[in-house]
Specification:
5 strands; five-stranded mixed beta sheet; 4 helices; single chain
């Protein structure tokens, strides 16, 4: 059974889950600030072990982003990601002001598009939306 814990993501769990899927290494300071600046976090726990997590970042009024959405590979396909995604979307919907529209965005790993499409996300570019873009800022 999976337990979903809200807003309890800690630094070690965050770094461990990122490492488990081979994501870029962060400094302790970066990771600490990232977790503390999250609007909302969800952590999936199975038998006392963190097996997944997701974060919401953004302004909480006009736009939010689903960031760092992870389910350890050995637990994928068990519905854990689906449970976490539903909680993340519900949380953002709870922030949306009455009579307003809010953007919920994400950047997914290549090949994972169909998972997110099940929740209503659309790939870019479209006829009306340009491509998503990114820039990495780093020291030379």
């Amino acid at each position: 059974m999976i337990e979903l814990k809200e807003n309890t993501l800690d630094l070690n769990t965050y770094l461990s889950l990122r490492a488990s899927v081979g994501w870029k290494r962060l400094t302790q300071e970066q990771a600490k600030k990232a977790v503390s600046n999250s609007l909302y976090t969800i952590t999936a726990i199975r038998q006392g072990e963190p097996v997944g997590m997701g974060r919401i970042v953004g302004d909480g009024a006009v736009i939010c982003y689903i960031q760092d959405f992870i389910v350890k590979s050995e637990y994928q396909g068990e519905g854990i990601g689906k449970q976490m995604m539903k909680k993340l979307i519900q949380h953002v919907e709870s922030l949306r002001m009455e009579n307003s529209e809010m953007m919920l965005c994400l950047m997914c790993a290549k090949g994972r598009e169909t998972f997110y499409e099940k929740f209503g996300f659309v790939g870019r570019p479209t006829d009306s939306l340009g491509p998503g873009m990114i820039q990495y800022l780093k020291s030379e």
